[in-house]
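Most newcomers find our protein records easier to grasp once they have seen one. There is nothing in a record beyond a sequence line and a structure line. Getting from the letters to the tokens is the skill we practise here. An example says more than a description, so a record of this kind follows:
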Amino acid sequence: MSVAVVYHSGYGHTEKQAQAVAEGAKGVLVKIDENGDLTDAQWEILDNAKAIVFGSPTYMGMASWQFKKFADSSSKRWFNMDWKNKFSAGFTNSASMNGDKGVTISYMMTLAMQHGMIWVGTGLMPANTKNAQRNDVNYLGGFSGLLAQSPADASVDEGPLPGDLETAKLFGERISSLAQ
């Protein structure tokens, strides 16, 4: 297995984003539970992957505490540099168009750098013209990581929007091609 997508999702929106990344990457999902934990089998999936994609909602300008607990728990792998030279990438979702998502992506990038991993950005041009529509690919303009937005009052069926999910699939495809 080449790509593992490890993520936490509080309300289901980030999970939909994770599913789209995994679909594009033909990867496997590794869900961080509500207590911030993974099973031994899930850790083994990450250890055997060629690429690990990190995902978390952005809450109050940062990754969720459950994701942070996972990251802290990865220190056993850090000590031995078990993930060194694996490809890595990250994604996040928040209710606001900006929502300080960049801080969450920066945190994930720092985690990857501490592990000696190789960070992969989106490789996608932004939809930043006057004619751009909200469902265009990379409408939120993420370069260092994948960004999505789901309104705070949106059900899981309503968000993320199709353009954000298509962006996630393309991002997954990029990561997979590099991991191959």
Summary: The two ends are 10 Å apart (CA to CA). The beta strands are 3-7, 28-31, 51-59, 62-63, 87-94, 118-119, 146-149. The longest strand covers residues 51-59.
